[in-house]
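pasting for ref. prot 1 ->
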Amino acid sequence: MDECYSLATVAEASDFVRWRRKEEISETSPQPFMIKEGTEVHMYCTEAPCGDASMELTMAAQDDPTPWTSPLPFDSSAVASTLTGRSHFSELGIVRRKPSRPDAPPTLSKSCSDKLSLAQCASLLKTPATLLLHPSTAYLQSLIVPHAQLSPIGFKRAFSAEGRMSPLTDVSWNGGYRFQPFVFRSTSQGQREFAYSRHHGSTAGKAVSSNLSAAWTRRKSETLVNGVLQGRKLGDPRGACMASKRKLFAAAVAVLDVLGQKGVGNGVYAALKTDSVVAKVREHVKEETRAVLGPWPRCGGDDFPLIEAIAPVPNQP
């Protein structure tokens, strides 16, 4: 989105994003930009994605891997309330909630496996980004994990056309969407292990999670503490990171304003996600994908007004 802003304001060439040609634009694909053909996105994780892809790893880590005998509930709302991240680990190929501590507040946020599965159809773009960028070139090419974190059986079941995604093989939708499975690979055995992994020999059994994180693009960078910009208090809207819904909304509006498209979503996030043709096409893709994955209790929509559109940081010297 920063690249789109740069193209729209200073006409600086981008290595990753281009303007779409007039003949490429249609009613269901009105986006002015797209990621350049030949640009690939690869993802490296130090841990296997939580959820279905890592169930075999979860079983292997148990002192007693005997499957639980308590029956699963039948209605989707009960499933959502019962299936915490790693519960009933013998139940495979199902949608799971993100794992958490037993004393954590309940959440309907889905596991990383399920979100990545959905992204194989809905692309890596969030709704604000789809107002600017055509999704056809915005799919993940590969997922790479350490050798010990790759469970071929679990990854194939969770992500591939031979597993739970098989009903979507060769499926495509309007707007440039399609089922685009990524390749999953591992690093070489015993090599390229993340030095601070909880499995690394020097830290095994001693590593704890850090509350510090960093976000970086070639145009800006941020340091976050507990998910909030360093120096800001939790709950302060000014502490939202650049990947937050509020900042993505603001970034999209900033570019569209430059292009003369004013009043997107009437300045309200919920309307942005439901009112435009682009948003409706994307939601249709997600609905059909969720139907294949299984019961997917919705988290409920977020809504907030856009107080001010903060443009992306201009080019740095």
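and prot 2 ->
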Amino acid sequence: MVLGVSLGGHATWHCILHDSRISTGVIVIGCPDYLMLMKDRARLSKLKTWTETSPPGSGFVGSADFPKHLVDAVDAYDPAGVFLGPIAGRTDETYTREPTAEEKQKLIPLMAEKLCGKRILNLAGGADKLVPYAQGAPFLQWLKRAIATDGWFKNNDIVLKDMVFDGVGHAMTPAMVKEAVSFMTESLEQAESRVLESSSKI
């Protein structure tokens, strides 16, 4: 079980995907799509690699502000990179369309390895300007569609609870604490129930 806030929230996404020992993750004001978050910050900061290229932002990825080694790390470990593919081949349509049959052949075993049996709680501030919910929303919507009851990756014992708190900025509020404690308690109770059930069969 892991819980992280802000940068720790980003790290929690990585932990839940890349550490098989972890079955529950609580992300507080974090983002599952580092590329989208950094592109938004580059735009707002008016970096030259954003403003002095045509179209704006086309020179950001691979520049000194977002160098190749960072691109490679995001492709390998970031949730959006793991499931949506390399940054170089990712477009707005990647987030909205259903994967092709060929893509599903690769995604289904990958998602089974990374997500089956896992519980994820994502808590975000609706007024968060540092880590805006909007930057992670396209990936979250993609994942929700995939694991929905009528999705192409349904019935795989995955829980994704996504909550946005209106008017909340970049902070963990008492209401978020309450949701996190409830979610983690539920996870522990389920784990205990499984252990007891397993013991009764011995």
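The chain has a mean pLDDT of 94.
The CA atoms of residues 72 and 93 lie 21 Å apart.
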